[in-house]
């Protein structure tokens, strides 16, 4: 099928590459000329396991192309996927300016039937606004093209995006029952047929329910994490081990094991903004989502938990003290620094007068860029970017772990002890067993593990 993807970011690039891999003819559009040039020169703008190979293979086969040419992009695909960003507005609601700009472009150039697929995460009712924007542009130029807007939210996780897209646990599609909506449904069914071969994974529903499903999923996952973080902080007080508790409750199939890991708070481009946006939607209907307000407040506090642990161990005045930090990205296998808990920790350590040596396997360049924005150029001199994890340790009072990269799981603890000023590890992701740490002579502070 001929497909256009509008927005070549995490979701757009992965969607385009994976659909090309299945044999479709994909046109990826972006407004960012630098990104398009990089892709056309064989580069990849993000770190995402497996993506580079899929893009290269399909580019070589002529099944995917990258361009900033709006008219050509609209002419190309019968299916027009909108995969642009929906960042938080000043009041926390989803900013739809990029989605609506994409819709207007389609209306301005379309000729013949189009299915507009909302893949971006958008508030309930957005499909109606997309349709209205297209209609307005069509009527302004006296055009009368037929179209239908469907909702097809994306559930991939960064760091596992290609795998998640290629093996989805579900595909959610919302469409209306008009003749154009039925035609759109048939085309979506054909597009996703390769994913439904062994068993049907598609959930067909009305458009508003599909839009809502995406927010409900992210809000539920964020709730589980904040719930566990709150319990972990209590476990620290009462002398219980949150890891044992996690296994004890996760074994109940009604609860399950996933997304119950206590840590340094959730980050990333989606949970924080989507929880806020759903709260804003509720306010527009004079409702309050009290649970989600708590989820957000708990997460804001949890992002400070590592800083609090440093202060309770080393005091509030950290001037003259040096710390080692492992892991900067908001989660492993990505270089994404959006809302990363490491940013909150580093800000606190620097403001209290400390200097820091940091290491991340892939996010160093992106970290330099965002930390300079967070801290200002002069404070950047207080951060040293090390070339290897062990090179952060010399002269440091403690090692603080923020992101659970695999490479941090089995370090040489003797060498860590030898290089740190004090044998102290403050572990924001509960990577090590407290008992083994004590045996190694390491003072270990996990999250909810003060047994
Ligand atoms: P992103 O910021 O990585 O990419 C968005 C891209 O859209 C950018 O390259 C930008 O230049 C481009 N763009 C903006 N306006 C455009 C226009 N008018 N025409 C063409 N291109 C335009 O964003 P992302 O992380 O891919 O997220 C996109 C959407 O998908 C968001 O709504 C997000 O909530 C949702 N989502 C993201 C993830 C994820 O893991 N990142 C997962 C599921 C859903
Ligand atoms: C999340 C969802 O998992 C995806 O299904 C969704 O498509 C995506 O948001 C989105 O809408 O953009 P992502 O943000 O890429 O994906 O990453 P997650 O693996 O969900 O992790 C998010 C944050 O939660 C990370 O900071 C992670 O460290 C934290 N987390 C996750 C925990 O603290 N504990 C857990 O048990 C799981």
Automatic annotation (TrEMBL):
Entry keyword Manganese: no
Pfam families in the cross-refs: UDPG_MGDP_dh, UDPG_MGDP_dh_C, UDPG_MGDP_dh_N
InterPro entries linked: 6-PGluconate_DH-like_C_sf, NAD(P)-bd_dom_sf, UDP-Glc/GDP-Man, UDP-Glc/GDP-Man_DH_C, UDP-Glc/GDP-Man_DH_C_sf, UDP-Glc/GDP-Man_DH_dimer, UDP-Glc/GDP-Man_DH_N, UDPglc_DH_bac
EC top class named in words: oxidoreductase
Pathway the protein contributes to: Nucleotide-sugar biosynthesis; UDP-alpha-D-glucuronate biosynthesis; UDP-alpha-D-glucuronate from UDP-alpha-D-glucose: step 1/1
Keyword check for Oxidoreductase: yes
Record-listed E.C. numbers: 1.1.1.22
Keywords, sorted A to Z: NAD, Oxidoreductase
Superkingdom in the source lineage: Bacteria
Catalytic activity: UDP-alpha-D-glucose + 2 NAD(+) + H2O = UDP-alpha-D-glucuronate + 2 NADH + 3 H(+)
Domain UDP-glucose/GDP-mannose dehydrogenase C-terminal: start-end pairs: 324-434
NCBIfam families in the record: NDP-sugDHase
Family recorded in the similarity comment: Belongs to the UDP-glucose/GDP-mannose dehydrogenase family.
Protein name: UDP-glucose 6-dehydrogenase
UniProt source species: Massilia terrae
Phylogenetic placement of the source organism: Bacteria, Pseudomonadati, Pseudomonadota, Betaproteobacteria, Burkholderiales
């Amino acid at each position: 099928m001929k497909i256009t993807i509008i927005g070549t970011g995490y979701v757009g690039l992965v969607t385009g590459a994976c659909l090309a891999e299945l044999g479709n003819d994909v046109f990826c559009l972006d407004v960012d000329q630098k990104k398009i040039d990089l892709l056309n020169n064989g580069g990849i703008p993000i770190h995402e396991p497996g993506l580079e190979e899929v893009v290269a293979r399909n580019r070589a086969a002529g099944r995917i192309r990258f361009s900033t040419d709006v008219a050509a992009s609209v002419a190309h695909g019968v299916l027009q996927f909108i995969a642009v960003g929906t960042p938080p507005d000043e009041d926390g609601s989803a900013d739809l300016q990029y989605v609506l700009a994409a819709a207007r472009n389609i209306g301005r150039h379309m000729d013949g039937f189009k299915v507009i697929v909302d893949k971006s995460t958008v508030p309930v009712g957005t499909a109606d606004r997309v349709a209205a924007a297209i209609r307005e542009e069509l009527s302004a130029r006296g055009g009368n093209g037929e179209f239908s807007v469907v909702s097809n939210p994306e559930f991939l996780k960064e760091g596992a995006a290609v795998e998640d897209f290629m093996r989805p646990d579900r595909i959610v599609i919302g469409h209306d029952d008009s003749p154009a909506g039925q035609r759109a449904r048939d085309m979506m069914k054909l597009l996703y047929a390769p994913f439904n071969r062994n068993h049907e994974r598609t959930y067909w529903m009305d458009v508003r329910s599909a839009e809502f499903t995406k927010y409900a999923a992210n809000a539920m996952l964020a709730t589980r994490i904040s719930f566990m973080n709150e319990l972990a902080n209590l476990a620290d007080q009462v002398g219980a081990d949150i890891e044992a508790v996690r296994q004890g409750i996760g074994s109940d199939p009604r609860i399950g094991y996933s997304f119950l890991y206590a840590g340094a708070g959730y980050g990333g481009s989606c949970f924080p903004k989507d929880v806020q946006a759903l709260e804003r939607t509720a306010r527009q209907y004079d409702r309050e989502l009290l649970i989600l307000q708590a989820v957000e407040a708990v997460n804001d506090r949890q992002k400070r938990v590592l800083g609090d642990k440093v202060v309770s161990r080393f005091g509030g005045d950290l001037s003259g003290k040096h710390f080692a930090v492992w892991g900067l990205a908001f989660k492993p296998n990505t270089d994404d620094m959006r809302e990363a808990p490491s940013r909150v920790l580093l800000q606190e350590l620097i403001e209290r007068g400390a200097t820091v040596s940091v290491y991340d396997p892939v996010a160093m360049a992106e970290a330099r860029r965002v930390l300079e924005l967070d801290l200002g150029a002069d404070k950047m001199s207080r951060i040293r970017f090390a070339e290897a994890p062990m090179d952060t340790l010399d002269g440091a009072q403690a090692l603080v772990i923020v992101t659970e990269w695999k490479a941090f799981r089995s370090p040489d603890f003797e060498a860590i002890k030898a290089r740190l000023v004090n044998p102290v590890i403050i572990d924001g992701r509960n990577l090590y067993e407290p008992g083994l740490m004590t045996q190694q002579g390491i003072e270990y502070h996990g999250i909810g593990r003060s047994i």
